[in-house]
Amino acid sequence: MGQILAAPPFSSVLPGGEFPAIREHPPAHFVGLKKQVQGFWQQTPCDSWFTDAELGTAAFYKTLDEHRYRVHPRLRAAVGFEKFRGLRVLEIGCGCGSEAECFARAGAHYTAVDLTNAAVSVTQRRFQLAGLRGHFTQGDAEDLPFEDGSFDLVYSHGVLHHTPNTARALREVHRVLAPGGRAIVMLYHRDSFNYNVNLRVVRRLRAHLMRTKPGLWLVQKIWRESVQELQRHAELIRQDPSAYLDMQNMLNRNTDGPDNPLSQAFSRDSAKRLFLGFRAVTTDVMFWNPNWLPLLGNFLPRSVEEKLAARWGWHLWIYAQKATAECATCTESEYRSFPRRLGNAA
């Protein structure tokens, strides 16, 4: 596919940090693109490719979680599930339910919304096997099917960079949060090693190798990715080399699979602009993949990986809070010193 058009700019913010009540219709090209996104994730629920166990079995969830928290060792601490006991939590994009189970076991009143019924079904099945309670619905992050002020936390990990209008989705996050409610969102990080070195340079050089059978064999030996996936990359390269090498397509096809229709990446500054209607906005960077350094990555000490992740990691975490009613017109410095109780907010 060609260049993805940028999402429309965030609407202006009203005094007191509130967003104007705008429910505009999305552009036609966004509608078509979103259908592609929905179709892709319907076929491949997030993370399901990391286990060979039968979908929906106890072994499936167990092996998936073992992989997830081994690859993302800081994830549990980054969320702080125990802080949300007794609170209303909405997760946008539940995938296969790894964090859903953590929230429910921590005592949160958990609700999942996902663009696909595949993710909703597989997460609901997880809760049935574990004897947990939750609410599950299929819906669009850009038009959430919930009343204003319905939740104390909205959590979304690696999802909102796949919707065409991320700005609109974050307006919806703000709308469904109660005053004082918190948002925890992970987006792909533009100022990362993955974006600026792996995708811009290494993966482009790799693409040239994959145009021949010996080159494809060499790529498989070095990166040890599935032969089927690499063959699909090679097919796309042969179809239209210049289109494949377009940076937007490099981002799409080399983040969540060769047929992924849309990924976006954000700098700290551009992410903060998406959260202009929120208060106390902070960011953190984490996650390093050894595969970004072919042949060398697996030999890096954990301490070096952690330092690289903290500076050039691929996951940009944004923490923000909706203004409380008592401090709707505070300045940012005043707001940061205002007592906040929800979820032990710092």
Helix share bin: 40-55%
Biggest beta sheet summary:
8 strands, mixed
Topology order in helix (H) and strand (E) letters: HHHEHEHEEHEHHHHHEHEHEH
Between the first and last Cα atoms, what is the distance in angstroms? 43 Å
User: What would the average pLDDT be, to the nearest integer?
Assistant: 88
Going by CATH, the architecture of the largest domain would be 3-Layer(aba) Sandwich
- What share of residues are in beta strands? 15-25%
Descriptive overview:
This protein has 2 domains: 28-188 and 267-344, 3-Layer(aba) Sandwich (Rossmann fold), CATH 3.40.50.150; 193-253, no CATH class. Strands 1, 2, 3, 4, 5, 6, 7 and 8 form an 8-stranded mixed β-sheet that branches. It has 14 helices and 8 strands. The chain is an alpha/beta fold. Mean pLDDT is 88; it is low at 1-23 and 341-346. The termini are far apart.
Summarize, please.
With 346 residues, the protein is α/β, with parallel strands linked by helices. It has helices at residues 28-43, 58-71, 75-79, 98-105, 117-130, 166-176, 193-209, 213-223, 227-239, 241-245, 247-253, 268-274, 302-312, 332-336; strands at 88-92, 109-114, 135-138, 151-157, 177-189, 265-266, 279-286, 315-321.
Features:
eight-stranded mixed sheet, 2 domains, single chain, alpha/beta, 42% helix, globular, 346 residues
Q: Secondary-structure map with pairings?
A:
Layout: H1 28-43, H2 58-71, H3 75-79, E1 88-92, H4 98-105, E2 109-114, H5 117-130, E3 135-138, E4 151-157, H6 166-176, E5 177-189, H7 193-209, H8 213-223, H9 227-239, H10 241-245, H11 247-253, E6 265-266, H12 268-274, E7 279-286, H13 302-312, E8 315-321, H14 332-336
Parallel strand pairs: 1-2, 1-4, 2-3, 4-5, 5-6
Antiparallel strand pairs: 5-8, 7-8
